[in-house]
Amino acid sequence: MIAEKELRLQQYFELSVKVLKVLHQGDEEQVLDLLEQRDVCIAAINELDAKAGNLLMNETMIEQLNRIAELETEIQSQLQLAMKKLSSRVRSEQRNQYIKNQYEDLTAVSKGVFYDRKK
């Protein structure tokens, strides 16, 4: 069970490295899939611990968890930057849409000649 947990932690670490690379490349669409794969790894690790009845841990796992913790802080900062970029893009699009709606003629005007009967 310990070997399997070490393998799962290694997979989690590799997925975290991929997430970080994808965030540096600016491809936010792939990030969600990678995060879901990481959630699957976490669920498998939790299931292994539940089967054992306690928290399985050794020195190798502690080292892996320390490396993962460092990656997690960097991933969080990159996700915040990506979120700020996306937020500014959304605000820019909303502003452009508002400006477009301000100057667009929304009233329908009939084509043709208008005769004023009151005169």
TrEMBL record:
Functional summary from the UniProt entry: May act as an export chaperone for the filament capping protein FliD.
Record protein name field: Flagellar protein FliT
Superkingdom of origin organism: Bacteria
Pfam families listed in its UniProt record: FliT (PF05400)
InterPro entries: FliT
UniProt keyword list: Bacterial flagellum biogenesis, Chaperone, Cytoplasm
Main location: cytoplasm
Subcellular location: Cytoplasm, Cytosol
Family the entry assigns: Belongs to the bacillales FliT family.
